[in-house]
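@channel anyone free to eyeball this complex?
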Amino acid sequence: MRNLWIFITKYNAFFLFLIFEISSLLIYIKYNSFQKASFINSTSQVTGTLYGQVDALKGYLSLKETNDSLARENAKLRGQLKASFYVDSVDKRKVNDTVYKQQYSYIVAKVINNSFNKRSNYITIDRGSRDGIQKDMGVITGAGVVGQVIQVTDHLAIIQSVLHKNTRFSAMLAGTKDIGSFVWGNDLDPHKGLLIDIQNNAQPKVGDSVVTSGYSLFPTGIPFGKITNLHAKGGGLLINVEVALAVDFTKLQYVYVVNNKFAGEQTGLEAVQNKNE
Amino acid sequence: MNKRDWRPYKTKMSRTILINLLRFIVLVFIQVFLLKNITFYNLATPYFYILFILLLPFEVPNVLLFVLSFVLGLTIDAFYDTPGLHASACVVLALVRVLFISITVQKDGFDNEPEPTLSIMGFRWFFTYALILTLFHHFFLLNLEVFSFSEIQYTLSRVVLSSLFTVFLILISGLLFFRRKERK
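replying in thread with the prediction:
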């Protein structure tokens, strides 16, 4: 027994190493899947507040760009107003239109923490469950798709960015409606993504837009980006193409969280169907 | 008589603790709010915060060394949203530090050389020390982050370039604080 004690104290560094290394690896493997909420992340009280304050300071540096993008978006939205269309038939009576009901609504949020140079990138925003944000909602900007909400607390939420090794969204070519999957490439480039598994009778061209297909959490037609290279690696029987991302992830300021009113209904329905099979 | 004996020792001790605490906070702030946003061609990312572990005094007990490394790693993890990743790399770093110091520094020299800084230990020793420890840390960190062998070539080049970047920053910080330490 005494010899054992001497042995342990003599090589104490090694045993300490074992203890701490095993515990940290356990933490890493246990919380790696991220969906399991943990205390050690940027939605916690301390780190969240710090990030918020530093971001408030940094916001001043990019006021001009934010203004520009908001102005552009305003112009685009103004173009969609009813008032900006010419009515070529004369209305005689007022019709209460019950055909259109709102399916998607948008919650604006400010990005308070963002990363884009790792293998798995996450974005933290300053809106949480109190503002109506729930897990699995889609996130976009005026320019295009940003990601998906994966974790929510009262005041903050974490988004799994498009720049993440597990991100996979249903996408299609804007012109021909050929369906594929949108993923991030392997080379950690924050300006490039891949559209994979397109049926090989499709004929994509350089410059074609890639947009959301509507099978996912987003409204149809939100852009991912434009095709830059038709011969991406891999693929085999199916076609893979490279896409220049429409959103500049290095300069994210404000995002919109998409609230799909039918999402709960759809997943419930599909869950029932899956159970029946 | 007794009182006089322990007093200078205690003030020296509390001074070391204060300096290291300050260093911890400053390095975490630099890493999280400045260096986190820096990357060269998606290849070189500096992890400058490990300087805290490198500069802990020689006399620090092994238990404290490992606890501090673990806590530093977890703090960085909290900001990087990667629980356990930096902590495990920092614990590896602590072990390599213990081995490296036990091989290269004689125990009785500790009185004159309280801290392994550039000004006290000289350029050659400090450079090898920083380089080897940084390489080990980055190798574990980046491989654990990717967690697959299929991209090993790319990961290794990231390890080497990031290490060079980090060592560069460490040496510069050593030179910046060179004189002040020597005068003391």
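from a first look: The longest strand of chain A covers residues 104-114.
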